[in-house]
Amino acid sequence: MGKLLSVADISVSPDHYIDGQRVSSTRYFDLHSPIDQRLLGQIAEGLDEHVDQAVSAAKAAFPAWSALSAADRKVFLDRLAEEIGKRADAFCQLESNDAGVLLSRMSHGVVPRAMLNITHFAEHALSLQDRPIDTAQAHHIVRHDPAGVTAIITPWNAPLMLGTWKLGPALAAGNTVVIKPPEWAPLTMSLLADCADAAGLPPGVLNIVQGYGATTGNRLVSDPRIARISFTGSVPTAQKIAQVAGANLVPVSLELGGKSPFIVLADAHIDKAAATGALMYRNAGQVCLAGTRFLVHSSIAERFVEAMRGYADGLRIGDPREPETEIGPIIHPRQVERVSGFVDRAIADGAKLLWGGKQHPFGAQYYSPTMLTNVSQDSEIVQNEVFGPVLTLQTFETDDEAVELANGTNYGLGGVCYGDEGHATEVAKRMETGFIWVNSFGIRDLDAPFGGIKHSGIGREGGDWSFEFFCNIKDVVVPKKPFEASFSQR
Ligand code: NAD
User: Fold this and answer.
1) What secondary structure letter does DSSP report for 403?
2) Each residue of 242-287: pLDDT tens digit?
3) How far is the CA of 97 from the centre of ligand 1 (A)?
4) Relative to the CA of 156, which ligand 1 atom is closest?
5) What is the CA radius of gyration of the chain?
6) pLDDT value of position 75
């Protein structure tokens, strides 16, 4: 076995979890904290044999797990959520230490949401009754059959939230699962394996294989026994996974990046819009659904910039474990380089820095909240996801122009629109996105559809949409009159 990690006095396994057992590797990789770059320990690297074992275990567990009623599965899943709740503090500490997420956000938002991701979908699955369709010819019984072994791959910016958001409906639907957690933030998924064990989940129902994306992740999604691939991450990775899924003809759900507009109409409440605008720096901007392109009516642009500058200046940057901190670190030195590269190139290209634009004195992996203006629609900084605390500001004169700018990228995840409610709602309806918030930000409901269009993804998760993805829809047709076989019959 690998050496147990001790992070904030919490013991967590570095190993895989396969068929109800911890499984070690012959290779381990270093895991550092983004807070201060200290070494947290070594994590097992998933080799081909580990992926094969995990998929075999999930395949073997599938018949019994899928044969349970939704109510019986709910008993296990409610216990799994309870076990998460018992370890709430440990989950908070682990994700704050390996992903740099605010401890306060973990305890108030993420851990309760992770539990709900399990219990809510377990409950929702009870409503997946056979649906009858009665026609003149036949009774149809439309069923949601579990799909099989599901591969779940998630990114480092919200490993617990995103892992459970997929795991909840996949298991509730009757599938068995193999998760490949993000290599830069793998600890909370390892603790989740302890929860599965304590909850008595049958061996093989949930398997976790740690490792890198290009090797372990690729091996997992390429396994021909995989029936569904649920992926959240970047566009280039999604394109690779989609190719593999295409070759194997496996349904794939892709939740990808964003470059969402934040529109401020002339009739917006400027201060409220600016206060919400500052939330786009949350998690150091490492949030897919943040509105990162500010499109502001020219008549209010100056006042808006000053209001937002006030909020941005007031943000407290520092150690995510401290209760007063509002912005923590960037996950990895490579991401810091990526973020500063985007800013430097934008400035060299003529962008004007309104604030920020440099590393924050708190530490090597902290970057000051940044706003750039004088950027053209076709520039790199406007067209590409930075995934850091970097925003751009453009102005517009008419609604048509705002809509054109808003829709003028390859992305289409979300957006924000501030203005008189009726006016903002009409503009919002014209956005080419999967969702858009009017005079608000971040309101989510587990029964509402979530996902993007264009390069922001394929498919929707949430409510019935999750089950449509994680199930095979089958029509059992029973004729009303005795069936007479005939070649001339249609
Ligand atoms: P990434 O695509 O580099 O990695 C995501 C996951 O995929 C990791 O676990 C990685 O190991 C794995 N992976 C990498 N290559 C793989 C391959 N060839 N086959 C299988 N798996 C592979 O993304 P990231 O940098 O970890 O995360 C940031 C991205 O995630 C951003 O683009 C962000 O917008 C996006 N994101 C989207 C959402 C959403 O819901 N739309 C939510 C959070 C993050």
Assistant:
1) H
2) 999 999 999 999 999 999 999 999 999 999 999 999 999 999 999 9
3) 20
4) 26
5) 24
6) 98
Among residues 146, 144, 122, 142, the alpha carbon closest in space to that of 66 is found at 146
Q: What is the DSSP track for 336-372? A: HHHHHHHHHHHHHTT-EEEE--SB-TT-TT-B--EEE
Place of tokens 């070649």: 487
DSSP-derived secondary structure for 52-109: HHHHHHHHHHHHHHHHS-HHHHHHHHHHHHHHHHHTHHHHHHHHHHHH---HHHIIII
pLDDT score at 442: 96
pLDDT of residue 405: 98
Show contacts of 129-133: CB within 8 Å, 24+ apart.
Answer: 133/475
CA 32 from centroid of its chain's CA atoms = 22
Output the pLDDT for position 16.
98
- Looking at residue 488, its pLDDT comes to 84
Going by their DSSP bridges, the two strands 5-7 and 10-12 should be labelled as antiparallel
- The pLDDT value recorded for residue 275 is 98
Out of 45, 83, 95, 255, the active site residue is 255
Mutate to test the pocket of ligand 1, among 229, 234, 248 (most ligand atoms within 8 A of CB): 234
Residue 129: what pLDDT?
A: 87
Model confidence at 70, pLDDT cuts 50, 70, 90, reads very high
Give the separation between CA 186 and CA 3, rounded to whole angstroms: 15
Share of the chain above pLDDT 70, in %: 100
Instruction: Give 299's Cβ-side CA count (13 Å radius).
Output: 7
Q: What is the reported pLDDT for 490? A: 61
Identify which of 260, 349, 344, 357 has the alpha carbon closest to the alpha carbon of residue 312: 357
Using CB distances shorter than 6 Å, the residues near ligand 1 are 153-158, 180, 182-183, 212-214, 217-218, 221, 232-234, 237, 240-241, 255-258, 288, 385, 387, 413, 452, 457
Averaged pLDDT score across all residues of the chain: 97
pTM value? 0.97
Establish whether 195 is a catalytic residue: no
Tell me the domains of the chain and their CATH numbers: 5-256+456-476 (3.40.605.10), 260-438 (3.40.309.10)
Residues in the chain: 490
Instruction: State how far Cα 440 lies from the chain centre.
Output: 20
CA-CA-CA-CA torsion for 242, 245, 251, 257, nearest 10 degrees? -20
Q: Are 254 and 231 in contact (CB under 8 A)?
A: yes
The dihedral built from the CA positions of residue 199, 28, 232 and 445, taken in this order, carries a sign that is: positive
Contact 165, 63 (CB under 8 A): no
